[in-house]
Amino acid sequence: MSVDARIVVLPGDGVGPEVTTEAVSCLKAIAERYGHRFTFREALIGGAAVDATGDPLPEATLDLCRSSDAILLGAVGGPAWDRHPRDQRPESGLLRLRKGLGLYANLRPVTVHPALADASPLKPEIVRGTDIMFVRELSGGLYFGEPRSYSDQAAVNTLPYTREEIERVAKVAFELAQSRRKRLVSVDKANVLETSRLWRKVVDDLAPSYPDVSVQHAYVDSFAMALITRPTDFDVVLTENLFGDILSDEAAVLAGSLGLLPSASLGGSVGLYEPIHGSAPDIAGQDRANPIGTILSAAMLLRHGLNLTAEALELEAAVDQVLQDGHGTGDLKGARHAHGTRSLGACVRERVTAAVSPR
Questions:
Q1: Residue 87 main-chain phi, psi, to 5 deg
Q2: Residue 96: which residues within 8 A CB-CB, separation 6 or more?
Q3: Res. 224: pLDDT tops 60
Q4: Strand pairing report for 70-75 and 4-12
Q5: Which residues are catalytic?
Q6: Rounded to 10 degrees, what is the CA torsion of 305, 63, 240, 130?
Q7: How far, in Å, CA of 113 to CA of 118, rounded?
Q8: Which of 57, 271, 293, 301 has the largest CB neighbor count within 10 A?
C-alpha cells in the first residue's frame, strides 16, 4: 500500500544542510522503489533562524512541524551564536521544539557494525557485538527545570521530575526491552539525588507489569565505566535527560564515530529524527561530514514515524552493505574507500536503487 507523507526538513547549522540533503535523497529513493509519495518542506531552526528572524524557533517552523507526519533535523549551534542570550541561542530553539511537540522519549541505538569493530579506539574484542538502545527522558530535568539563574558570582539550575514524567518514558523502555533481549538497566544517582530516588522507585513500581524483563539499577558514574569496559552486557538503558545526553555521546566511541549514530524523539503526535552529532562548524561546507547518522535517522523515521518497517530495514541494509564494503568518510578509521559527504550518500542511495524491486 502506498503512503502519502509530509516530511519537514530542518537543515539547521554547520554540517546540518549537507547531511540532511543526503538523507532526503535516500528517502526519495525509498519512496520511488515502494511507490510512496513523500512531500518535503524545509524550515528554519537554530542559528540559521536566529540570523534570519532573531528567533531560534520561529512560530512558522513550529506550526509546520505540528502539521507534518515526521520531522528530519540536521544539527544546530556553533560559535557564531555563543554570545547570544540564552533564549536566542540555537540550542534553545531545539529544546523549545521538543517541548512544543510534546516529545519525551529519545531513542538512541548504538550498534557496532562488524566491519567497524577496528574503528573504535577500544579493543575489537570489547566492542564487537555491542547492540544497545538508550532511552533518554527528553522533556524534564535540568534542561527545563525552574528556577534557574545566572550571574558572574553564582548560578542555579533545578532538577525536577514527577512520577508521571518518569512513568511514561520508563514504559517506552520496558516495551522496547520486551521486543529485544528483555534486559533493562535504569541509570540514576539515587545515593545522592532525591529525583533519582524517585526515578528508581517508579521503575521498581512498574517492573511487575513486565515480568519477562530483567531489571537492574546502576549509578551513573559506575555505569559510565561499565559502558566502556563491558558494553555487550547491556540491552536497553533508561536514563534521565542529562545522564542520557552524556552517556549516549560516550557510547559513540564504541561504534567508532559520533557520525554513525541516529536518534528518534517520540511521544507527541509527530516524531523528530536527527543524528546525535553536533553541527561540526570546523568542517561545514567542506564535504567531509559523515551522513550515515542522518541516513539511519531517516530509517528510524520510516519505522517509527510512518510505520514502514520493510522500507526502514532496506535502508539500514543499504548502509550495512556500504560499510561492509569498506566505504566511509574520514572519521571512520580503516575505511578502505574514502568518500566525502555527497559521495558516501550516493553509495547508500545506489544500494537502495540497485536492490531487487519489492513490487
A1: -75, -5
A2: 56, 57, 62
A3: yes
A4: parallel
A5: 143, 189, 221, 245, 249
A6: 30
A7: 10
A8: 301
Which phi and psi angles does 114 have, rounded to 5°? -50, -35
pTM of the model: 0.94
pLDDT of 334 strictly over 90: no
Domains belonging to the chain, first-starting first, are: 1-104+257-359 (3.40.718.10), 120-255 (3.40.718.10)
Write a three-state SS string for 235-280: CEEEECHHHHHHHHHHCHHHHCCHHHCEEEEECCCCCEEEECCCCC
Is pLDDT above 90 for 219?
yes
Nearest Cα to Cα of residue 133 among 95, 185, 168, 94: 185
Q: Are 293 and 328 in contact (CB under 8 A)?
A: no
Residues with Cβ within 8 Å of residue 333, at least 6 apart in sequence: 118, 119, 256
Q: Pairing relation of β-strands 131-137 and 236-239?
A: parallel
